[in-house]
Amino acid sequence: MYYKIDLNNYKKKVVPFYDTFDNYKNLKWEQVEMLTEELENFQDSFGKNDWSFYLITDNVGIKAWSFIDWNKKYPYLCNRYVVPKHRNKGLGNDLVWLRCNEIIKQGYNYASIKLEDWNKPALSVMKENIFTELTEI
Predict the structure, then answer these.
(1) What is the pTM (predicted TM-score) of this model?
(2) Which tens digit of pLDDT belongs to each residue from 119-131?
(3) Alpha-carbon span 69 to 51, nearest angstrom
(4) 43-66 burial, b if ≥16 CB within 10 A, otherwise e?
(5) For strand 110-114 and strand 51-57, is the pairing parallel, antiparallel, or unpaired?
């Protein structure tokens, strides 16, 4: 299901430190190595098609990552992933909230997201009363 996210009354949330990349060439080789397959799918989108990539790391490696596609009617929160050993600790929700924070910072009041019914952990963000089902994005 696709959802519109109404950020008009959203209160910015505290999220873990993250890096933002708008240009594929700004990623460090270690980061690219860990995410090669996924980044190959999106490298042409950096810069020219208005995608932003967000990366949460620690001193050991990558914990989670996600994208925003700025080309849709509402900025689209897409492709969030949490490394298995870091799951069930709230990072998936943090990936949603950090992108909501970024969208507000860019001056938007609405966003969109796809949440699959089968993915129960991902649906936990629905506790916030800011989601409205969409028929198209």
Answers:
(1) 0.77
(2) 888 888 888 889 8
(3) 5
(4) bebbeeeebbbbbbbeeeebbbbb
(5) unpaired
